[in-house]
Design goal:
heterotrimer, A alpha+beta (178), B alpha/beta (121), C alpha+beta (691), A: alpha+beta, 5-stranded mixed beta sheet, C: alpha+beta, Four Helix Bundle (Hemerythrin (Met), subunit A), 6-stranded mixed beta sheet, 21 helices, flat
């Protein structure tokens, strides 16, 4: 929960884009949002988790698309005209990545200051508190603000850490075929 | 404006000379060794000045000077050697072969322009 | 300053690195007794050119360092100094130092001059061991500091100059008229012509100079200014300079010359410092450049020309199109396709460079290491003209060096050991590059002691990489060398084992989409084979369908495609399937299983099998449908996602959709891990391969 106290921009207000997911409202820092798109068919990536819907061609760049309902084990629904893909740009130490996140619909843009955030209680929901930056109450509604960087790097790409490039077993393979 | 031929196996030197002379409106042709220069000298007309490096593969600058002087069109054309400071012996060999004078490296654009003005009528 | 030469620095660095390479290979040639004048000349020229350019760009340490080298080399080419192995070694080290300095300057870093100063001393010792040239060199460096004579003011009112050209003066392209014009720019001038030496017309040589001049020049003019004007003709004339009010003794002419040089030097020094300042502020790594033959550029320009013609033809066609012109439209589109393909191919070719760029460093590596190790080693380079993508080449440099060092250090024996083993006392390391399919193959082989199966196996068991009960082929045992954690402190030496094991080599190569193999016969030598895609960016692809998705296979890896005949199908122990193709049993990989898409077919008859190369073996991939072939531009999946086993990248097809490119060795791995349980039986099948 240390994240919440992390001072950002001296208590200045941050803008958050919110979206709906199974009746709940979630928000991400608007600075990470690159664009919004409608759902479009993807090219599936074999042997990847079901929430990785595949990749799309975003103006010549190959961008993976992740279904957040699926990722959070919420009930899956058919994609419809309101289904939105939020294209976000996330960064870790080495690398900047662009990903698309499938949500039910986009909602609002709110100004929320760091001090308005409340720590997230241990929700029974499937979203691990690890990926939640905090809760905010706006017009008597609760908005769950996500730590999108953390979510992507630890909650979506984590598989990559268990299998770094070149972890094949050529010695074994060679033995099998020798 | 004049037509100048620069002969040097180092492209960087050629480019600098060309750039400098072109800035004064001269036309510059480049050759990367003596053989090429001699060929160009025979093909092209109206070259008013030749600037040549001394140390080059295939045909060195001093041989080039001697060869150029054999061509009627280059009998009185100013030919300058690009030499380094103190290369007295080279300068003298160059003079003996018919060189007009020399430009001392390291390359200095102002000096090149002054010298060009000096020899171009 | 009006003329900014900074822009030429990049070319200078590039040329200098080439010059250093030339020096290095020349020195190595000399070391092998191949001293000929042209070699020495080449080395000298390189040093000379670097010195000249470095002066222009204010790279002082390089100028002073190359100056000493140049002096030695000049003596060598004049035959005044013998090229002993000691001198050559010092010169080789000097090449390294220059590379270091040059790299530092190129990156706008402060160079570490300690190594340089050290070598400069060594060079000076060599130089002073023979006094011939030292005087001149010292004088030169002295002149940079001696400026005390500048203090003395010259206060003359004018000069009387008598200028008597020799007859041959005109033949050097000098023109007395120009000299007089220049003098006139210094001050008020009165000129008297003496034509008394003119011969009668019939005897006159029109190319000779018979005139002489008496000149009176008024003004506070320094002698230097005048001698400078006459500098080029001082041996072609009799010249007398008489100051009108001599302010001081006529000093030694030579001294005057030096003063000219001195003040010039300082002026330049100031300018250099000015020029340097801005670049200090912006320390940025220079963009990499590539040198391209003009023929390649010309070819591209031609193609663009064709493309433009096709384009204008098409747009004309479009203006008043009706169905009668359909045929022409088709032709035009075909042309367009061909033009763009040609253009693309040729643009990609720009990136292709001969592997000699990577090979060139090895003569030096082998020379240095064989000396250090006390081994006699011959380097053989084969296929140096083989071209590969520049990026790929840059990346295999380190793996190659690693493998070569490994051969020298561990592979090859000392002369004594070799003689004892009944071999020639000189061993060899061979680098061989060639194209094979869509790959470039580089082999690093030696005729050394070969790999010891027992030793490697023993160590691998000790490290827990394999179990004692495992049955492994030789090939599999040798591949253990590339496993992380195999390399041990025991075999670390400063030559090959710099804390990096062969596992790093393998990882680097695999990250480029390539692979590495090793073969060895104990006692006879070993061969490491690196296989890399020719280019990283474009691939000739075969499109095919599995389930509802389109995938791409590198066309170059495809041997053939066939429809499965039931009687050639062999199910081996459950579902490890093989297909008999002529003399060979080919393991079948069901892509729909590997990718967990589509249903599992029980009856394979009439299914499509694409036979592909996997190293030196063949694998059959079961696909649903073959689609077209086309060139695809490779995009990395890792940029925004992560590495996926069995997929080497993605591409964007003509309709804008993304298609994944298969990685055959990855597929094979997945396929085997799926059938883990069947391993031994599968091995048995392969053992049965019809020989």
């Amino acid at each position: 929960m240390g994240d919440i106290k992390k001072p950002t921009a001296n208590e200045a207000e941050n803008q958050f884009l919110t979206f709906m997911l199974a009746g709940e409202e979630y928000g991400v820092d608007i600075l990470t949002v690159q664009e919004l798109r409608g759902w479009e068919p993807t090219t599936p990536i074999p042997n990847s988790p079901s929430y990785v819907r595949g990749v799309i061609n975003l103006r010549g760049v190959v961008v993976p698309i992740v279904d957040l309902r699926d990722r959070f084990n919420l009930e899956r629904i058919d994609y419809g005209p309101t289904t939105v893909v939020v294209i976000v740009k996330v960064k870790n130490e080495e690398h900047e990545r662009i990903l698309g996140i499938v949500v039910d619909a986009v909602s609002e843009v709110y100004n929320i200051s760091e001090s308005d955030l409340q720590p997230s209680p241990d929700m029974q929901g499937s979203i691990s508190v690890d990926y939640v930056r905090g809760l905010a109450t706006i017009e008597n509604k609760m908005v769950i603000l996500l730590d999108i960087n953390k979510l992507v790097h630890e909650g979506i790409l984590s598989k990559g850490k268990e299998m770094p490039p070149g972890t094949g077993q050529p010695a074994q393979a060679a033995a099998e075929n020798g | 404006m004049s037509k100048v031929m620069i002969v040097d196996d180092m492209a960087s030197m050629r480019k600098m000379v060309t750039f400098t002379l072109e800035s004064e409106g001269h036309e510059v042709i480049e050759a990367d060794d003596g053989d090429v220069a001699l060929e160009l000298a025979k093909q092209q007309s109206g070259i008013n000045l030749v600037i040549t490096d001394v140390n080059m593969p295939n045909m060195d600058g001093i041989t080039l000077v001697a060869e150029l002087r054999k061509l009627p069109a280059f009998k009185f054309t100013p030919i300058l050697l690009l030499t380094t400071e103190g290369a007295k012996e080279k300068k003298m060999q160059g003079k003996a072969a018919g060189a007009t004078g020399w430009l001392v490296k390291p390359f200095d654009p102002d000096k090149l322009l002054a010298t060009a003005r000096k020899v171009l009528r | 300053m009006a003329i900014d030469l900074e822009q030429f620095k990049g070319i200078f660095f590039e040329e200098s690195f080439e010059g250093l390479d030339a020096m290095e290979s020349g020195l190595l040639e000399m070391n092998e007794g191949g001293t000929n004048l042209e070699t020495v000349n080449t080395i000298f020229r390189a040093a000379h050119s670097i010195k000249g350019g470095s002066g222009t760009f204010g790279l002082g340490p390089i100028t002073s360092f190359t100056h000493i080298m140049e002096g030695l080399l000049d003596e060598m080419r004049e035959g005044k100094r013998e090229a002993t192995p000691e001198i050559i070694n010092v010169l080789l080290e000097s090449v390294d130092v220059l590379r270091e300095l040059m790299t530092a300057f190129q990156n706008n870093e402060d160079p570490d001059v300690s190594h340089m100063e050290d070598l400069q001393k060594q060079l000076a010792v060599i130089r002073d061991s023979d006094a011939v040239s030292s005087a001149e060199i010292n004088q030169d460096s002295d002149s940079q500091n001696s400026d005390e004579s500048d203090e003395k003011e010259t206060t003359v009112e004018g000069w009387n100059i008598s200028f008597h050209p020799h007859e041959g003066l005109l033949k050097t392209g000098n023109d007395p008229a120009l000299i007089l014009r220049e003098l006139s720019e210094l001050g008020e001038i009165t000129i008297e012509v003496d034509d008394s030496h003119l011969p009668p017309l019939p005897d006159m040589d029109p190319e000779a100079c018979y005139l002489s001049w008496e000149i009176h020049l008024k003004g506070a003019i320094e002698q230097d200014q005048i001698t400078e004007i006459f500098e080029w003709v001082e041996d072609d004339c009799d010249l007398e300079l008489v100051p009108i009010y001599p302010a001081r003794n006529k000093s030694d002419r030579r001294d005057q010359d030096r003063r000219v040089a001195t003040s010039d030097d300082r002026r330049q020094e100031n300018r250099r410092q000015e020029a340097r300042r801005p670049s200090d502020k912006a320390p940025s790594k220079p963009a990499t450049t590539i040198r391209v033959g003009t023929d390649r550029i010309d070819a591209i320009i031609d193609m663009v020309g064709e493309l433009v013609i096709t384009q204008s033809m098409l747009s004309q066609l479009g203006e008043d199109f009706d169905m009668s012109k359909l045929e022409r439209l088709r032709d035009g589109l075909e042309d367009l396709e061909r033009n763009s393909r040609d253009l693309q191919e040729n643009i990609m070719r720009i990136r292709m460079q001969p592997i000699s760029f990577a090979f060139n460093r090895f003569p030096r590596v082998v020379h240095d290491l064989s000396q250090k190790l006390g081994k006699k080693i011959r380097l053989e380079l084969v296929g140096e003209e083989t071209e590969m993508d520049k990026t790929v080449m840059e990346k295999i440099n380190d793996p190659l060096v690693h493998l070569v060092r490994n051969c020298l250090d561990h592979g090859l024996e000392t002369p004594e050991e070799r003689i004892a083993a009944g071999k020639d006392d000189e061993g060899y390391v061979r680098l061989n590059a060639f194209h094979q399919g869509g790959n470039i193959v580089v082999e690093v082989s030696d005729d050394g002691r070969g790999l010891s199966r027992e030793k490697i196996l023993g160590k691998a068991i000790e490290k827990g990489l394999v179990k004692e009960t495992d049955v492994l082929t030789d090939e599999a045992v040798f591949m253990l060398l590339f496993e992380a954690g195999f390399s041990t402190a025991e075999q670390l030496s400063d030559i090959s084992g710099r804390g990096v094991g062969l596992d790093v080599v393998r990882r680097n190569i695999e990250s480029l989409g390539g692979g590495v193999e090793v073969q060895s016969t104990f006692g006879e030598g070993s061969a490491f084979t690196i296989r890399l895609p020719l280019t990283l960016a474009v691939l000739d692809g075969q499109l095919f369908r599995i389930g509802g998705d389109t995938y791409v296979l590198p066309l170059a890896s495809i041997v053939e495609s066939l429809q499965i005949q039931r009687d050639s199908l062999g199910g081996v122990a459950g579902d490890a399937e093989v297909y008999r193709l002529r003399e060979e049993y080919i393991p079948i990989v069901r892509l729909s299983d590997v990718f967990s898409t589509g249903e599992h077919l029980d009856d394979l008859e009439n299914s499509l099998l694409v036979v592909v190369e996997w190293g030196e073996k063949h694998i059959g991939l079961l696909v649903d449908e073959l689609l077209g072939q086309q060139q695809v531009v490779i995009k990395s999946l890792e940029t925004n996602y992560e590495r996926v086993r069995g997929i080497s990248g993605a591409t964007i097809l003509g309709d804008g959709t993304v298609s994944l490119i298969l990685d055959i060795s990855g597929l094979v791995e997945i396929s085997y891990s799926i059938r883990d349980a069947l391993k031994p039986r599968l091995a048995a099948v392969n053992g049965r391969s019809l020989a």
